[in-house]
Amino acid sequence: MALLGALVAGGYRAAVDDRLDGVPREAADTAREGVANAVEVAPSTGGHARDLVHAAQESFVEGWQRAMWAGVAVMTVLLVLVALRAPDGSHRPATDEEEAAEAAPAR
Predict the structure, then answer these.
(1) Which residues make Cβ contacts (< 8 Å) with residue 68, sequence separation at least 6?
(2) How many CA atoms are closer than 13 Å to the CA of 47, on its beta-carbon side?
(3) Which of 46, 64, 82, 88 is the most exposed place for a label (fewest CB within 10 A)?
């Protein structure tokens, strides 16, 4: 989960950089820290407020999508590993009577 969260945050930062053209530098720096920061600083940007919030929202979704695709890839690899290493079902566990018979000394 922590890895996916880090991927969301990294994806957001990578995506938001391209969408902050024209936004005042101080507000853009704050917006790079996260969506909540972008929404908080947006009113101080005047005419750029709507663009800044929209850029933050789109960037969050893009980061989230990247993280989910990474999660899908990891889960696919794990599924293949489990499928290849799982027991084939032909071996059944021994019953208590069979274990007792094997443990008894041969006469």
Answers:
(1) 4
(2) 2
(3) 88
Q: Which helix (H) or strand (E) holds 62?
A: helix 49-85
Confidence of residue 30 (pLDDT cuts 50, 70, 90): very high
pLDDT at 21: 84
Question: What predicted TM-score, i.e. pTM, was given to this entire model?
Answer: 0.69
Residue 90, C-beta contacts closer than 8 angstroms, at least 6 positions apart: none
d(CA 104, CA 71): 51
With vertex at residue 82, the alpha carbon angle to CA 7 and CA 89, rounded to the nearest 5 degrees, is: 160
